[in-house]
User: Fold this.
Amino acid sequence: MYKAVIFDLDGTLLDTLDDLMNAVNFALREFSFPERSREEIRSFIGNGVIKLMERSTPDGIDSITQEKCFDSFRRYYLDHMADNTAPYEGIISMLEELKKRKIATAVVSNKLHSAVSGLCKDYFPCLIDVPLGVAEECERKPSPLNVYKAMKALSSDKENTIFIGDSNVDVETAHNACLKCIGVTWGFRDREELEAHSCDFIADTADEVLKLILE
Assistant:
């Protein structure tokens, strides 16, 4: 049984896709850029919101316009990030069981730190011990820096910690930190991508994740 669990947020604990899509398209409309479909946004997620906006805007725009577009996205998203967002099925009961068993929990996400803290407080009160988002570029996954910070805050080590996410970025992050990774299939990527990146375990439900943590 692991003593500490580090989760990705978007696509792992929370379905944030519609709120991200709405924020992206709000910003694109402000600059008269073509809007993006839900599936396009899904494919763009994984490397943080700056990269999400870079992938969503048309090729060839100048850096000043790109920065203004991102700022428009950020302002809208921070005001509307809980409009449609919800935990995936079984997540709350899984986190409650981890808490009951005194297994420490953290979130390491490529979202802005303020958004990570706010979402964890709103959706998982008292269930996530350490929420960490990105405050500077060096913390962005697949860098393991925030994973190391989370382990230190949880007083855990590599042998007793496991990482859980839904994408190749999460698998790379876990392996960069020398951790095992559970990939989940309900998020923004599919089983084939997780297998292609040598994910250690793959789970289709929150119950399967819990069983792997407790083994």
User: Anything to note?
Assistant: Strands lie at 4-7, 14-15, 86-87, 104-112, 130-134, 161-165, 180-184, 201-203. Residues 17-80 form a domain with the DNA polymerase; domain 1 fold (CATH 1.10.150).
